[in-house]
Amino acid sequence: MSELTAVKNIEFSIDKTQKRASGMRFIEPYILISPALLSLFVFLYYPFLKTIALSLSITNSQGVAKAFVGFRNYFRIFSEDGFWETLLRTFYFSGIVIVLSMVLGFLTSVLANVKGKAFAPFGIVFSMPLAAASSGVAIVFQKMFDPASGIINKIFGVNCQWFLDPGIALPLTAVVTVWMMSGTNFIFMNAGMKNIPAELYESAEIDGAGFFSKFIHITLPGISPVMFFVLTLNVVSAFQAFAQVNVITQGGPGDATKILVFSIYRDAFFNFRFDFAAAQSVVLFLIIFIITLIQFKNEKRMVHYS
């Protein structure tokens, strides 16, 4: 009887140990990722939820919510003519940036993959914008296009106002943004081109395929997954562009370069309308989210994986 009791005690102890080990195996992954989850909550999810809460409230000059007003802030910003102009300006600016940055990234990647010693330094040259700070680049371009002392006017012998001209300021700021993003686009697209098997090009050459045929049927399908990723990245970056507008034009002349991110910044830190700024931030998030969602809905048509 005592032997049976001892056996049962051993079995109970083993079963208890196994359950404890099983419980630890279940909890252990969550313990390991808890620092990352905490960081995401503190620096990402909490500010996002706080922004939504502020957009549904009236705030004081210090950004403290005083009363819940529902969607009234949204109705007010959409009823302002200036907001719609800013929104259209933002789409115009982002469209220029996205299209030109994709084209420039692709062309520089093609040049860097051309065989020959003369093209060897291109990889370093085209990736250099990646190492430059956005504010520093903005200051350099501001000085280059200065109407009085800028090098651009002196080289071409013109007297253009550049960033002081309402008709030129926004497209020119977009071009500066394209240059700033070109390094990142080049890095990804160049890596994508290098991953296309050389055997495909060799087989195509044996079959008599020319440059354009190889480009359309091999290069474009082969790089399409990377281009899809770069397009998504460029959409987010274009709609969130801020440093170049803040440093070069401060939204001017007039409101010619006042895009949505800069409008949020001005409303929050100059006009102290934190509730308005929060509502615009949510609108900007929804715009980027919807565009990105449309992209992923059409991923199968845009991307060739095999």
Describe the protein in words.
The protein is an all-alpha fold and 306 residues long. It folds into 2 domains: 54 residues; 230 residues, MetI-like (MetI-like fold, Orthogonal Bundle). It is 74% helix and 2% strand. The chain is built from 13 helices and 2 strands, in the order H-E-E-H-H-H-H-H-H-H-H-H-H-H-H. The protein has a two-stranded antiparallel sheet. Helix 5 packs parallel to helix 10. The model has no long low-confidence stretch (mean pLDDT 87).
With strands numbered from the N-terminus, the spatial order across the biggest sheet is 1-2
Total count of domains = 2
Strand content: under 5%
Q: How far is the N terminus from the C terminus?
A: 69 Å
Which regions have little confidence, pLDDT < 50, spanning 5+ residues? none
Summarize the structure.
With 306 residues, the chain is mainly alpha-helical. The protein has helices at 2-55, 72-78, 81-112, 122-127, 134-144, 151-156, 169-194, 198-206, 211-239, 243-249, 260-269, 274-297, 299-302, and strands at 57-59, 65-68.
